[in-house]
Amino acid sequence: MAAGAGTDIVTAIGAARILPVVVLEEPAGAEPLAAALVAGGLPTAEVTFRTAAAAEAIAAMSANPDMLVGAGTVLTVEQVDAAVRAGARFVVSPGFGPAVVRRCRELGVPVFPGVSSATEIQLALDAGLDTVKFFPAEQLGGIGMVRALAAPFRSVRFIPTGGVHTGNLADYLAHPAVLAVGGTWMVAPKLLATGDWAEVTRLTAAAVAAAAAGSQSQP
Ligand code: 3PG
After folding, report:
1. Choosing a second label site near 199 at 20 to 30 A (CA), which of 34, 37, 107, 174?
2. Residue ranges of domains in the chain, CATH in brackets
3. Residues known to be catalytic
4. Which of 82, 113, 110, 84 has its CA nearest to residue 97?
5. What is the b/e burial string over 82-102, where b = at least 16 CB atoms within 10 angstroms of the residue's CB?
C-alpha cells in the first residue's frame, strides 16, 4: 500500500497478525466461515479469486460487521474492479503486477503485491508501496530470507505467506519487519467443503494463541 494511505487497514492486519487465505468454492459457505473466524478470534480474511465464488463470498463475508475482508490472487484489473465492487477493503496478489497495482492506487484501495526478490521489492517501492506479501515464504527460505531482504529495505513490511502454520508462525512474527503472516491452514479447502466450521474455529483459535505466545516470549 501507499505510505500514508490505508494505514487503518495495515494497522488492523498488523493487529490480527494472521491473515487467513480463503479458497471458497461455494458462496454459501461465506457467512458461516466469517462467523467461524470471528469466533476463533481472527476477524479478517483474504478471499482469493481462484474460484468463481470470490466476489459473492467477499460480499457475504463483509456483511459480518466484525470482519475485515480483502481480495486475494488478484491478477487482473477486472478482478480489482470486481473485488472493490464486492466490498473488498484491500487487494493481495501473488506477484508484482504493475496494472493491478496501478488500478488499486487509482481506486485508493490498499494493495499488497507479492514479492520474492530484492528486485521486486524495488518495483514495489517505485510504485509507492511499503507493505508487500512475501510469497511463497517457506519455499523461498523462510524467516532467513525475510531477514536478508529486510536488512536493506528498512521501510518495508512483509506478510510472509506460503508454508506458514501454527508451528512456525512465531518465528516470522518475531521479526519487526513482519506485519502479519498469511496462510490457508486454518481454512483448509477440505474444512470449507465439508462445512466443518467448528474445526475452522478451533484451528483459528490455536493460531491466535500461538501468535500471542510468540509475542509474550519476545524480550
Ligand atoms: C497463498 O496464495 O497465499 C497461498 O496459497 C497460501 O499458502 P499456504 O496454502 O501454504 O498457506
Report:
1. 174
2. 3-216 (3.20.20.70)
3. 46, 133
4. 113
5. bbbebbbbbbbbbebbeebbe
Cell of 189: 479447502
- Please give the chain's pLDDT, 219 residues, in tens: 444 457 899 999 999 999 999 999 999 999 999 999 999 999 999 999 999 999 999 999 999 999 999 999 999 999 999 999 999 999 999 999 999 999 999 999 999 999 999 999 999 999 999 999 999 999 999 999 999 999 999 999 999 999 999 999 999 999 999 999 999 999 999 999 999 999 999 999 999 999 999 876 654
- How many Å lie between the centroid of ligand 1 and the Cα of residue 115? 14
Return d(Cα 80, Cα 88) in angstroms, integer: 9
Helix or strand holding residue 161 (H, E): none
Which residue ranges have their beta carbon within 6 Å of ligand 1? 21, 94, 135, 161-164, 182-185
Query: Which protein residue's CA is at the shortest distance from atom 4 of ligand 1?
Result: 162
Question: Where do runs of H (alpha helix) occur along the chain?
Answer: 7-16, 30-39, 54-62, 77-86, 98-107, 118-126, 142-150, 169-173, 189-194, 197-216
Tell me the residue type at 195. Answer: G
